[in-house]
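Reopening this ticket.

The earlier resolution said the output was attached, but the attachment link was broken on my side. Pasting everything inline this time so it's all in one place.
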Amino acid sequence: MFELRLVQGSLLKKVLESIKDLVNDANFDCSATGFSLQAMDSSHVALVALLLRSEGFEHYRCDRNISMGMNLGNMAKMLKCAGNDDIVTIKADDGSDTVTFMFESPTQDKIADFEMKLMDIDSEHLGIPESEYDAIVRMPSFEFARICKDLGTIGDTVVISVTKEGVKFSSRGDIGTANIVCRQNTSVDKPEDATIIEMKEMVSLTFALRYMNSFAKATPLASQVTISLSSDLPVVVEYKIAEMGYVRFYLAPKIEEDEADPYVETTSKAKAKPKAETRPKLKINPDEEMKPEVDSNMENEVVEIKPELESNMEPEVDSNMENEVLEIKPSLNSKMEPETESNSNMENEVLEIKPELNSKMEPERESKPQLDIKPKKEANGEVQVMDIE
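Inline output:
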């Protein structure tokens, strides 16, 4: 069973408001050490890491490690039903497909509970190593949010440069350019208003302002923001949540030479690559190559057909027809029977074959003289002569 009780319910509401626009669905990992989340945005450009340690809750119980998949937009709607001073309790049974949110007023005169269905979300937990950065800037979180908002009206990108003079935020757009410099300032009455810069090497990196403005939505969680920069690592924008944890945003830098969004260019290049690979396929079936194959097949078919026609025609008409009996195929007999008169005596009758058949069978032989057929004796001793016209 998993159960946590948070007296400052508004803190959980602020956490959801800061990440719900960046991440749609995510798994909350619950363990004995705390309540955590790690997820990437839909374009897989930015990474969010959240940790709320178990010591920061009034009551925390986790019998075994569980992962609860939730839609962050729906979870934020649930938490909006709670007052800023309400005590928030989250419960989930082992093997259950629902999670329960319970909101209690400080005077205990009102208790509300809501149940939400859990989701099955496939996600990989990335191991983020601890790294040393070339420059670390700590500044008031509201000041960072204001700078990102102001630069967003000028251009789409921000160049963050850390030098001995301080940290400079620059942007360039169609209407002009903007440069904002924040120098180190530690002599202030309130520690949260101080600007502290730790620099090992000079750093200058470019980032998309739309992501920076999204990160700045976590400003209500902490009075200060920490920006860690390095030339070969993503930038880390961290907001500490009181003494119980943090929310960190990771973003890869953009290439300065590219005026357009490198994330969009990377996607287009990835799509363009298969097109280059498929080009050779267009040359496989040209018309010039197909014609010889068809012609060769046609020639072979014609050569094979001609002998068949000649072989069929030759048995019907023989060039040496003298002293031989004319043989007519059954197929011809069936056609010629109506024209031949049947007579048992058959005396003095001549078998006639229409010229149409002769013209079809051998047009070139029409001019030949009549051929005498060997007489055929009948039973009565008379002879019948068969003439062919």
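Reporter confirms the inline version is readable. Helices lie at 9-19, 72-80, 141-152, 209-215, 262-278, 287-313, 330-336, 355-361. Residues 206 and 254 are 5 Å apart (CA to CA).
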